[in-house]
Amino acid sequence: MRLKKIIGAGIVCSVLLMPVSTLDAKGKAPTEPSSKAFNAAEDSVKPDPNALLILETHHQGRAAYTGSFTMIADNGTLADIIIENHSNHPMYMNLYVDDYSEPMETTISKNSEKTVKLLALQDTSVKVYIYSRIGHDMDLSIRAEQFR
Fold it and tell me: Helix and strand tally (H, E) in the chain?
């Protein structure tokens, strides 16, 4: 059982460390197509409401944000946690996978958005803790989506 948790934490950690880029192969940002075919494809990719793990939540104040959810393997093995930092200070997120894992920490830069990708091959409980190290006012939005 302990080996399974270590392997699961290793997979999640490796996914957290993968770079996410919005640049195409030529090194420039993709242009936005304006065709109806694109709009139809975009509509079909919208997440299923059943796959929302954390509904869009706006959090303000000096208190840390805490949230939790459970990824059910039947709903898919991948999840994105999207955090938007609207403040002028960095924030830090500790992510706990299952009850006995060491926290994985990541930084959310000031006035930026960060997507953390998770991979879970079995039912997995996840706890999210976002805080400021210096106690400044926090202003953030967070949501989490699970998909196949």
Answer: 2, 8
What does the block give as tokens for 59? 């959090």
Q: How far apart are the first and last CA of the chain?
A: 25
- Run of H or E residues at 84: strand 78-85
- Reading the chain (148 residues) residue by residue, the pLDDT tens digits are 554 555 555 555 444 444 443 334 444 444 444 444 444 444 445 545 457 899 999 999 999 999 999 999 999 999 999 999 999 999 999 999 998 889 999 999 999 999 999 999 999 999 999 999 999 999 999 999 999 8
**Predicted structure pTM score:** 0.68
